[in-house]
Design a protein that fits this description.
about 130 residues; alpha/beta; 2,3-Dihydroxybiphenyl 1,2-Dioxygenase, domain 1; four-stranded mixed beta sheet; about 40% strand; globular; Glyas_Fos-R_dOase_dom; VOC_core
């Protein structure tokens, strides 16, 4: 068994698609209508056959509450790995990304946290 898709709740799929592709640099893999929403998955440009990130609409009340509580609590919804966190931090800053935590060394890794503008905090990590 292996992970093939992981999801993140988003408030607006179109806004999320734009942010995750144009700002973060992910690549759209699937965009399929499913009722009033869409099955939108993204992949890393370096791993087009890798794990997909599903931009899951938070239309269910439990999803909205969960997303709000973890955001308000300062907890990242997910984590992305980067090769050079300081370079990625600068690139994202230049693209207007709002960081809540600047690159911080923690034992053998360095992490930073930013707001994805779609209701989530996202952590980037260099191991």
């Amino acid at each position: 068994m292996k992970i093939i898709v992981t999801s993140i709740f988003v408030q607006d799929q179109d806004k999320a698609l734009k942010f995750y592709t144009e700002t973060l640099g992910f690549v759209k893999k699937h965009d399929v209508p499913v009722g009033e929403f869409r099955w939108i998955t993204l992949v890393s440009p370096n791993e087009p056959e890798g794990i997909e990130l599903l931009l899951e609409p938070n239309n269910h009340p439990a999803a909205k509450e969960y997303q709000k509580k973890i955001f308000d609590g300062g907890y990242p919804a997910t984590m992305f790995g980067v090769a050079d966190i300081h370079k990625e931090y600068q690139r994202l800053l230049e693209n207007g990304v709002n960081f809540t935590t600047e690159p911080t060394k923690m034992d053998k890794l360095t992490l930073a946290v930013f707001d994805d503008t779609c209701g989530n905090l996202i952590q980037i990590v260099q191991q």
